[in-house]
Amino acid sequence: xxxxxxxxxxxxxxxxxxxxxxxxxxxxxxxxxxxxxxxxxxxxxxxxxxxxxxxxxxxxxxxxxxxxxxxxxxxxxxxxxxxxxxxxxxxxxxxxxxxxxxxxxxxxxxxxxxxxxxxxxxxxxxxxxxxxxxxxxxxxxxxxxxxxxxxxxxxxxxxxxxxxxxxxxxxxxxxxxxxxxxxxxxxxxxxxxxxxxxxxxxxxxxxxxxxxxxxxxxxxxxxxxxxxxxxxxxxxxxxxxxxxxxxxxxxxxxxxxxxxxxxxxxxxxxxxxxxxxxxxxxxxxxxxxxxxxxxxxxxxxxxxxxxxxxxxxxxxxxxxxxxxxxxxxxxxxxxxxxxxxxxxxxxxxxxxxxxxxxxxxxxxxxxxxxxxxxxxxx
Length: 378
Description:
With 378 residues, the protein is α+β, with helices and mostly antiparallel strands. The protein has helices spanning 2-10, 15-64, 75-86, 238-246, 267-280, 316-325; strands at 101-102, 113-120, 128-129, 140-141, 143-153, 156-157, 163-166, 211-216, 226-229, 253-254, 258-259, 285-287, 294-296, 308-314, 331-345, 348-353, 372-376. Strand 15 (331-345) and strand 16 form a beta hairpin.
């Protein structure tokens, strides 16, 4: 019997099964851990998507709804929070409170940023549970993500309305500046373009909701209410001019570009084009109440009403100097204006100033530009 036991002790047959069994156990553990790791990586990506969308939504609301209301109940905070929550993380709503939407300063000191942080963590009682990690003492994992979006100046626009009005100036002749009665007087009134300290132009926050009644400029006066028709690239006359109002001429213009006047009386084509434009979204109207000061009842098929268009603003100083010196190209883009077309009043175009998105050229867009581009910066 003793001999038999000694033989069994030295017998190595069947050891391969032991190693195979241990190997399968290790392989199973590694595979299951890989599932956990993959799940956490997916959760991290989804959390970042949630934070990104929340930050962008907050920046959009900051620019379009209210740049000054940054309270917990304000549109920027509420939009950022609700949009982030709408993007689930591993089939669960992430934790995002009003305190998780903040407004850090940019590197230049501007308060044009929105930061959103989302949580699936233990302290928020919504950590990500593990599948096999609990066997190793890890029952859940914390996931957080942060994103920052900013409202940046934009200097370029497309689908512009084919007429232009002067940019706002410092009214010294008969102050204060009035969109209905002011007339630019060279040598007395002062215009400082975007990009320079003390720029005098229209401002998307200060001037939002101001109503403009635009009339054809038949006497070459530089006044906020007088528009000059433009010949956009590819335009060959009144028909193309009308189409550019009711549709979209895709030519791009940047602050500083020279503009070409459309010869002839364009009152009729302007009225016809405006009617075409209003017919695209006939139910939209301007709500002037303090809680809105915005467009209401736009067709839900449009993310932005087609009746909101970029309007070129020309440099009044350049224009006046050109008139006096006989220069051919006497219109130059000084800035942009978001313009919601309300209606035609006889031959007058009635509309409201409204914030508008734009594009950034390869150079640095000038500070003080009216239009903005919403972008993620972190």
